[in-house]
Amino acid sequence: MTFNERIDVEPSTWIESNVIQSPLSDSIVVNNGEYSVNSGNWIQGKSSISEGDKIKVRVMSSKLPNDVTMCEIILGNDSIYFQVTTKNFTATAKQGDARNINLGISGPNNTAIGGPSPQWLKYNSDKEKMGSAVKEGLIPNIKPLFDAQIRDAVICIGGDGRYYLTGSTGSDIWHFNDGVELWASENLKEWDYMGLVWTFEKDATWEKAWRFHHKAVRALWAPEIHYVKGNYFITHSMPPGGRGLLKSVTGKPEGPYVNALENDGFWKEDIDGSLFQDEDGSVYYLYGGGWIAKMKDDMSGLAEEPVKPALIDPDMNPTHHARTCAPRRNCQDIGHEGTFMFKRNGLYYLTAADSYQGRYSSMVAVSENIYGPYKWRHEAVPCGGGTSYFKDHEGQWWCTYFGNDNQSPFREMPGIIKVDFTSDGKVFPSKDQPQLNTLSQQEWEQKWAKVWKDKYVNL
Description:
Number of helices: 5
CATH topology of the largest domain: Tachylectin-2, Chain A
Radius of gyration: 24 Å
Distance between the termini: 63 Å
Number of strands: 31
CATH superfamily of the largest domain: Glycosyl hydrolase domain, family 43
CATH architecture of the largest domain: 5 Propeller
Number of domains: 2
């Protein structure tokens, strides 16, 4: 029982499927489209069908060239898909080298990146909340590193000593984008655009397939570049779940990149992969909200089953977690996505993104063992989100940043925040930053002791 696929259709038009005959009596519902039973009205929602009913569906084609639009038809417990591909035509050219038009939720009002989109204005209509994390002194009033729409920004130091930055980029990562873009810097101030180092069209294998995630999607989420075992690797995710690992075939950050996993493999389900190399050379793969597994020596796959470390004294306040955490995970985790790991003074820092009092923040927990248990879960960088931590050439630690809530000073652009550590190892934003350096270290820590009074953290 299948619907035919339609190709080369006109943009922004309703496209009807062929008719299929139901083999049974059951329910029907269509997502991202409409359906008609026995030539009746076009409807949405859920209804009942009988054996022998003739069913047709339709979906609005995309307005973009060569784009796929997909709807999901659920008959009983089975899903069937109908997809159409918009015909090729000339679209507006991009401006400059990096992707900076047709943006998603981005801003603020910056003409270099196209100005605030309707989505950005909608999400940032509450003037009292906009930038409130800065107004409350939780984070410094940082500025983006450069003008580009980037979510999930991460930075690593390469084998050549340069800083490399990547993240989720493109026209609309909730629908489709081009691949992995890369920037490089000698000093964290001036950044050079290195272009697309991996693309769906030229380099993808298993990633090429369109998937259904509320609509047709072929996008790449949260890529991270890592320099481990003397080579560059890129982790990536495909919505709604599917994770891969790429390796440079030249030993250079610009690639080209191929699948590092044996038999063109990938990991099903979940998102947000990352890598961590320990001092003994062992490399660990992390994903989701904190799963960990050791990699094989040749980086071709996992050497063990993933584990999710236990958390000592978990924070049970539901306002300190994403809304899905309490019903699904009983507030027992460090975060719900965007995991990352670093090591400092013999301690392992397991980080993940979570919603903390309405902020998409970087949560951190600490352990003496990579597999845990971990303790001291705390909001290390308010509005920091799914991020990376790195130590620069001068020994200063930083947290990358991109802004994903209206308490942030900006949205979906790359930034960095200096971080410091308490005597026992907890993370907090450094006082030594613009507009926040008038307090002494003692005054700053006293301020944070007050801010953290409800976070089970004692300075």
